[in-house]
Amino acid sequence: MGMPKEKPLTSVSRLFGPLLVLLLLVASTTANKHLTANRAAGEETRMHLPQGVWLDAMALGYRNLFAETLWIRTLSWFGAHVRDADYSYLGGLLAAIAQLNPRAEHAYYMAGAVLPWNTGSTLLSRPLLEKAMLAFPQDWRWPYYRGFNAYWFDHDKAESGRLLAQAAGLHGAPQLVMSLALRMQASAGELQTALLFVEQLLKEQQDSNIRSQLEHLRADILTEQIMRTLDTRLAGLPQRFHDARDVQQLRDAGLSLPAILPDGGHIVMSDKGEPVSSVSGKRFRVFVPPAREGAGE
């Protein structure tokens, strides 16, 4: 049986693929030389690319080389338009690079960092970071970036908490990711969700150092839950003394309070009759990030 014939496109790509890439590089270099002059004349030099299968066909089998060429062109264009960039156009270029080479990490980084910070939205960056999550399913960075952007730009704490929890569960995720995921959920008032998140990580985590950190976080959440219960029960007492007798009333009624708070202190009553830590003189609270200006929180 004879060898099967090559598909026409494959044969063409072998002949003209390198030439295509060379022409793209030359065109990119030539265009860059004219960027300043074109901008002064009120014009722009843009690369208008086909979409979908037509973009793949244009690469003629040299997808990675085409993607790298396009990346060079993208950096050159963006460098000349930093102050007045069309971010929809930039997003299209990055999407084309990712289509040609789904493992083009540099394009995903740019999408996650440049696009949302300059548009105030995740509309352009979200699809690219989700594509990165598919291309690198075991890499904690991509759900981490998506999660942070969901919080900062979309003000979507539920989605952010889900993505950050996903990132924290991946190999190599630093403690910062775990802490941020926990604080995100706690700041939304979802202490039970945060507790379940930490307990699940404890089930899966074997490293003793990380387990120790997680156990401290779990203690913080449990203490916060008890303190909130204490606040509610104090407000419901028929008679208040505004001193240690109030806490003793609740202990006598069966409320279990921690002997030692996570900060090393124990619960005492302040001059105003509020339960505080004997160490800090303040009510113990799970850390909540300060409200961001203009975030509407």
Task: Write a structural description.
The protein is mainly α and 297 residues long. The chain contains 13 helices and two strands. It has a two-stranded antiparallel ribbon. Strand 1 and strand 2 form a beta hairpin. The longest helix is centred in the last third of the chain and has 28 residues. The protein is elongated, with a radius of gyration of 28 Å.
Q: What order do the SSEs take from the amino end to the carboxyl end, as H and E?
A: HHHHHHHHHHHHHEE
The assembly state of the depicted protein chains is: single chain
Structural class: mainly alpha
**Which consecutive residue ranges, at least 5 long each, have pLDDT under 50?**
1-43, 288-297
- The helicity comes to 55-70%
How many β strands by DSSP? 2
Can you give the mean pLDDT? 75
Question: How would you write the strand order of the largest sheet?
Answer: 1-2
- The share of residues in extended strands comes to under 5%
The biggest sheet, with number of strands, parallel, antiparallel or mixed sense and barrel status, is:
2 strands, antiparallel
End-to-end CA span: 72 Å
List its salient traits.
single chain, 297 residues, mainly alpha, two-stranded antiparallel sheet, 13 helices, 2% strand, disordered N terminus
